[in-house]
């Protein structure tokens, strides 16, 4: 059975210390090296369930462009689940409809391998885990590398935003140049995912037929000028004839696309009304071919999702020991869920990308007390707190 996964606009793209900084093979090479017998359908169903929940819980508004990647979010949650325990782990497993962390990892690995083995190699995924210069356990590094093709990276705190943003920019082909504006002083663990998609239309739109000044009517009746492409894509119509519903597949690809322009209500209301049953009913075979006109467009979206998840899945934010992840004693909790997505549709096809970052804030970290940078010292009288001496050691190598 084909797995269908949504990247949401009006469009559904479908498809099937310890360790310091480990290097991994490119995603397609990693996928080719993997063998898995776990069913991918469990991870696909969990991803789609996350989609339907997100569309209802996020503060999305009619009249605004919406685009996000549930697959990126679900994969990042899977990474986070590998490094947490207790209530937070249970909440993530419940969100993704999985019984165990090991089962989730196996199923998500199978799904990622299937997605990456698209004949056109039009889908790519990358995962990484970062720390504020804290050493990772080798067992954790091995685990996330095996199941997610992920690297682990212990980086000085001052370098973290630039390093992570460079990683995201590289793995989204420059489409998401910056995911983290800054990091909170208490944030010490970071789980990051990036996905990209480059799909060619079965039949490219003829650029010579594109109307560069076509009238597009927005939800409140406002009219704007857009470039309208005509006679391409190879789509089939489905559903009732009041609404405009089209489905197509990309050239040499395991991926497809759904477009829906409702006769009543808004596109957002249509998406909010989706559930697993309705989604699978839409996947029934359709035979009627139809020409299509579609606007050319490009935009980027940005979301912080922790407040929405705090309302629906508060257990996810419970604190937990990080003994599975780090060699130092630490306790942390999920702090932020950052997501950015990009889409560009033109005469040749669709380019898309998304990145998700999940951060953990420290409740406590027990670190070795090593004074290997300049430091201040004060000698004082304990009973009266009178300061007897005060100073700064800037260069302990100088003797006199």
Question: What is the compact description of this entry?
Answer:
This protein is an alpha+beta fold and 400 residues long. 26% of the residues lie in helices and 32% in strands.
Chain-wise SSE layout:
Layout: E1 14-15, H1 27-33, H2 41-57, H3 70-82, H4 86-95, H5 101-116, E2 123-132, H6 138-148, E3 151-155, H7 160-171, E4 187-200, E5 211-217, E6 223-230, E7 235-237, E8 244-249, E9 255-261, H8 267-272, H9 276-282, E10 289-290, E11 293-304, H10 306-312, E12 320-321, E13 329-345, E14 349-366, E15 375-381, E16 386-393
Parallel strand pairs: 2-3
Antiparallel strand pairs: 1-9, 2-4, 4-14, 5-6, 6-11, 7-8, 7-10, 8-9, 11-13, 12-13, 13-14, 15-16
Helix pairs in contact: 1-5, 2-3, 2-5, 3-4, 3-5
Structure description:
The protein has helices at residues 27-33, 41-57, 70-82, 86-95, 101-116, 138-148, 160-171, 267-272, 276-282, 306-312; strands spanning 14-15, 123-132, 151-155, 187-200, 211-217, 223-230, 235-237, 244-249, 255-261, 289-290, 293-304, 320-321, 329-345, 349-366, 375-381, 386-393. It is an alpha+beta fold and 400 residues long. The protein has a single domain (1-371), classed as Antithrombin, subunit I, domain 2 (Antithrombin, Chain I, domain 2, 2-Layer Sandwich), CATH 3.30.497.
